[in-house]
Amino acid sequence: MMLQVLNLKVDLIGYLAVNSLFTKRSVECCLVELVDKVGDSKNGLAVQETLSCLAECTSLDYIALQVRNHCFLLH
Fold first, then answer.
1. d(Cα 64, Cα 59) in Å, to the nearest integer?
2. Which pTM does this prediction carry?
3. How much is the pLDDT for 64?
4. What is the CA radius of gyration of the chain?
């Protein structure tokens, strides 16, 4: 059940990134959860695709910087 909910959340974020106005503030609201799931064996590819959609909406530099900052803050 939790896997299905996570899949739906990731798909929804990707859909919104492609089909609506997705700003840097919007990215900040959902990036933490996505970064935590990048290496997940079941959801990793969907999360990576969603991160690519977010990078297209904002910029690759911004997404890369935010992901890097989040990774170093966790460890």
1. 9
2. 0.87
3. 93
4. 12
Distance, in Å, from the CA atom of 54 to the CA atom of 75, rounded to the nearest integer, reads 24
d(CA 53, CA 72): 23
What is the tally of structural domains in the chain? Answer: 1
pLDDT in tens, 2-39: 888 989 999 999 999 999 998 999 999 998 889 888 88
3-state secondary structure of 12: helix
CA distance 11 to 69: 24
At 37, list the tokens: 């799931």
Are 62 and 24 contacting, i.e. CB atoms less than 8 angstroms apart? yes
- Residue 27 structural domain: 2-74
